Palmitoyltransferase (Cutaneotrichosporon spelunceum), 487 residues
Amino acid sequence: MLSPEATRECAERVAKRFPVYFVWFLLGVPWLMFLYFISIDRVLARGDVLHFLIQFVLFHTLLILAGIALVGAITRRPLRPDASLAPPDARPLRPDDLPRSIDPDDIPLRLLRDSPRNVAESSSHQRHTRESEAQEEGPEAEGLEEEGDRLIPKPDDETHTSLMAKSGTGGPRWCRKCDAWKPDRCHHCRSCRQCVLKMDHHCPWLDNCVGYHNHKSFVLFTTYTCFMALYGGLEAAHETFRFFNDPPPDITPGPDAAQKWDDWEELRVAFKPVALLLIAIMGIVFGIAVGGLAGYHWFLVLNNRTTLEDMNRLPPAALLDPETRSRLEALGERGSRRRTPGAWRPDHILTRNERNKLREEARSLNVYNVGWRNNLRSVMVGDGATPSSSWRELVHNIVTGANPLAPLKRKQYGPGHFFPHDPATLESLRNLTREMRVGIGEGREEPESEPEVYTGGEWTLGDDSSDSERTVCDESYGDRRRGRFDV
């Protein structure tokens, strides 16, 4: 006998997994209906064996591929960010923390070992040492030198640094719920209760998050399900058309036939056209619905965006250079309502025109868009895959991308934490961030003049000698939020 707590936990688990069971139901029941009413009762019954084999192979191939992709999307659980890859200044300052000054000599050994620059320097130093030793030892050491060069790990091309900042503070991204470093394109999922690498969205139909670990499986599942539904619906529509134009002989007995049906036979014969029409409508409608979702995700894949990045209302902000960030920290508490020139300005400090301009310009800057070929290859083949140099490699990448069982080629360093980016787009986003968030225009080192500020008694201009005149009082901020006046 189960206790009430165990019964409640079991009921909650079943209720949470019910959408997953319903998805399997939507795949299983149409398969049985299609196999019996279309393939066996219609195609095979009239002796069209070739059509039956082609239909059987195509439909079941799409069904198996969709099922494998669905299993991969469900079973591949979200991955937590690796805390050992966090930069030294990732943790934000707390109100009770003392100002931090990072000692350049106090660098973790992990960063020194994994840094591409240090790896290159160490490899060049080791190569120079081996060359000098080879000259002393003679030509016998040349083979060992070439073998040692092949054993040196090659770093990735892109830099292993964070690019994006928190729009509210301007500092590195940090998850307050997990109290851990949050890499670029990583978000905290309230359902999974953890941060998910390159999170796309949380899908209740999978009871899982769609992100860096299973994005390919989700895209393939929607694609193969769309093709399977459309193919089954079109086959059912064709059989429905043939049924009404050329009825089978078992339901059209001639005047001389002495066939008498019982109640079950009459119900079976009457249900045949209904079943064919139902399968056709279900297949076409379901295929169009899932096809819309698949098409949207293929659009995101080709543009290297996630659903959260495409629908997020908060404009992105680029992480500024260390010198500017240190000056922002020295100016005071980040994210406050102080309108100090050169300090970081959150959304509630910006005017309505500034917020609209920031949303329009920042949302159009996709830092991670490196070309549709590279975007497609990074998701379907793996971000560690190289461009195809021959037709054989191109065909291999296509087969790997279409196969839900093929393992992805992951990066050697920080997979899911660091991504390739477009340097020109990143620089444009940094210039926009300096202009709108810090008040430093492009090509100017000094912050632009601040607008008029209401200090509770009268309108004044910001003055460098007085902090009180550059501070928006809580009352004025509440009035401004209620639309009484605009700054």
Observations:
- The CA atoms of residues 304 and 433 lie 22 Å apart.
- The chain has a mean pLDDT of 75.
- The two ends are 66 Å apart (CA to CA).
- The longest strand covers residues 187-189.
